[in-house]
From TrEMBL:
The lineage of its organism: Bacteria, Bacillati, Bacillota, Bacilli, Bacillales. It comes from Neobacillus bataviensis. Pfam families: 3-dmu-9_3-mt. This is PhnB protein. Signal peptide: none annotated. Residues 2-130 form the PhnB-like domain.
C-alpha cells in the first residue's frame, strides 16, 4: 500500500483535526511520542510526549493520509513523504538499496517496536520514502 505521509513541526494533532473536520473524516489511530516504550537511543523529553508519533486519518471511503510531528524543523516543501507498506523484507531491502544510492538516509531500515523493518530515505531526486514491513 502506498499512502501520502505528512510531516509537521509540532502541529500534526491540530492539522489532523482540521482535515478531519474538512472531510468529515475519521481518525483511525493517533499515537503520541509518550506512548512509545522507553528507549535510551531515542529519549523523549516531557515537552515532546504529546507530539504525534503516527496518525492515520480516513478522508474518503478508500483514501487515507498519515502524519506525524518531525524531530527536526522542516521547511515548507519538505513535509510530504511517500509511505510504502510491504509484507516482504526482501522487496523492501531491494527498493531501499536502489533508492538510497545517491540519496540521504534519515533513519536506517531496521527493526522497530511497531514493525519488522522501518526506515526513511530521500532519493537523489529529493523524494522522501518511508518503508514499513509488517
Amino acid at each position: 500500500m502506498i499512502t501520502p505521509y505528512l510531516m509537521f513541526n509540532r502541529e500534526c494533532d491540530e492539522a489532523f483535526k482540521m482535515y478531519q473536520k474538512a472531510f468529515d473524516g475519521e481518525v483511525v489511530s493517533m499515537q503520541k511520542y509518550g506512548d512509545m516504550p522507553p528507549n535510551p537511543e531515542f529519549p523523549v523529553s516531557d515537552s515532546e510526549k504529546d507530539l504525534v508519533l503516527h496518525a492515520q486519518l480516513k478522508l474518503t471511503e478508500s483514501g487515507f493520509i498519515y502524519g506525524s510531528d518531525s524531530n527536526r524543523d522542516l521547511p515548507d516543501g519538505t513535509k510530504v513523504s511517500i509511505s510504502v507498506e510491504l509484507n516482504s523484507e526482501d522487496r523492501a531491502l531491494k527498493a531501499w538499496e536502489v533508492l538510497k544510492e545517491g540519496g540521504s538516509v534519515y533513519m536506517d531500515l531496521q527493526p522497530t517496536f511497531f514493525a519488522k523493518l522501518h526506515g526513511s530515505v530521500q532519493d537523489k531526486y529529493g523524494v522522501t520514502w518511508m518503508f514499513t514491513v509488517s
